[in-house]
Amino acid sequence: MARILINDFLLLFYSLNENMKKTPPAKKHFFEKLAAKVTVATGSTAAIIIAFGSVLVWAATGPVFHYSENWQLVINTGTTIITFLMVFLIQKSQNKESMAVQLKLNELVAAHEFASNRLVNVEDMTEEELKVIQKYYSRLKQKTESEESLQRSHSIDEAEEMHELKKGIEKSIKKKVKEGRETKKI
C-alpha distances in angstroms, 144 versus 117, 149, 150? Predict the structure, then answer.
């Protein structure tokens, strides 16, 4: 089953790759280019220095303007407008970054033959569904704590199967030990 899924995935990936070679790269929209440049610029050291310098200049001009309401209004209005615009810019940047990370994680989960495919597109699940998966991983953690190697990776299903197998082996050993004790008593 896993081999079929991997083969289907590789076929899909190959066909997408071939289609990408035939089509020209997508043009970025003006706003996307602007947002990317502004995000980089506002996150720079120069932007912090300019912002700090602006506040210092504003504070220094306080005595000149007698600390008037208009003087205060300048900094209040300026910071409000910048904050308002930056909220949307940061959110757009965060959404794009989050989507890229999710796609990379989905690729890793889909490509690994032992990974649980339940986690592909986990970001689209409801909070209740996420809590159910969290409970599975909590159980997985409990089951693997007793193992000798903490570096071994498990899927939820594999951990369940291994746990049941171990329980079965343990029961059969206990049964044999018990039978061995009973035969020694006779």
Answer: 20, 9, 7
Closest C-alpha to 140, from 162, 118, 171: 162
CA angle 6, 151, 148 (to 5 degrees): 125
- Whose tokens are 């989507």? That residue is 99
| CA dist., res. 125 & res. 129, Å (int) | 6
Domain containing residue 74: 1-123
- Indicate if 108 and 130 belong to the same structural domain: no
| Backbone angles phi and psi of 64, in degrees to 5 | -65, -40
Alpha-carbon gap, residue 67 to 98, rounded angstroms:
44
Considering all CA atoms of the chain, what is the largest pairwise distance in Å, rounded to the nearest integer?
108
Q: Identify the three-state secondary structure at position 66.
A: coil
Whether residues 72 and 138 share a domain: the answer is no
Residue-level pLDDT, tens digit, the chain, 186 residues: 444 545 555 555 555 555 555 555 566 788 888 888 999 999 999 999 999 999 999 999 999 999 999 999 999 999 999 999 999 999 998 988 988 888 888 888 777 766 767 677 788 888 888 888 888 878 777 777 766 565 555 566 666 676 677 778 778 877 877 777 677 666
